User: Fold these one by one.
Assistant:
Number 1:
Amino acid sequence: MMQIIRFAVLIVAIMSLLYPVIAIFSRSLALEALERKWEASHPGVVGVERDNFLAEGMAAYRKSLRRRIVPFAALLPAVAVAAIAYLVNHT
């Protein structure tokens, strides 16, 4: 049983380090998509309008389902591995 707990703690620690990387990467992808969308509809235009467009888009991203799903990318593998280890060792 102690090995399962130790392994679960290790997985949680690794996923805790991985979560910020996934969150930053997801935010970066959203920002790049907004920048491409701006360039497609307003080629060569930069300034306050572009900054406002990006700020509004990122505000919408912060409220999106995609952002809310990111924590599960860190949580679900840890839960799955712990459940599998428990089932293999105790059934």
Number 2:
Amino acid sequence: MVAARAALAPQPDNTFVPACRDARALWLRITGRSTGKLKLAIPSNRAALPPGMYMLMLNSAKGVPSTAKILSIA
């Protein structure tokens, strides 16, 4: 099994502006795995993960990022 780390970063407000004024990465802990699925732990402090649109990326054990998936945190 290949080790992976999950990173969650805010989606830029404007797709034409590559720099997001609220740019930060939040590393999420992988708590479970099954075929084609990962279970991630989110911070208990909701201030660390406010509602909004985010890009979810997985990094391989070698640090190679996946293509981002857009998701909404309510």
Number 3:
Amino acid sequence: MKNFIFAYILFALLLTVNAAPFQLNKRAITFGPCNTTDLGDLLNVKLGIDPPESEQNELFDVSGNLTKYDITKNQTFLFISYRGKDGYLLSSPKIRYFNYSTKVGNPFNISVSVPTPELPDSYLLKVAVGDPAYDPTLAFPFFACVTNLAFF
């Protein structure tokens, strides 16, 4: 009987220890500024599935209040990208254009569904708002940007 109790306790302990690392990988994403030198405007990002699941569609609900630039219909865009720890792209960035205009200081909201690539244990998720009129010399002229902080 003592051996059975010992084996049961050992089995329960093993299951608990093995499950602990997986709980850390499933924590919700926390977003913060993309760049510490030029903060720009911050965005509020809510995910449909938090954290995102590999190779599933993910709903992004992005809102905020831009303080320097207007949103121009069919010109201002939402940018979403997934990168690995080494900075390599996990898939091509997703770009969705705003279907309405709004002036500086007015709140905005955009909801988009994009496919999630196959995700490694650690990755960087970047969500930004940009407009080519902001700086035509830049490939991705962002004036509002956030990135996740939880996975590195």
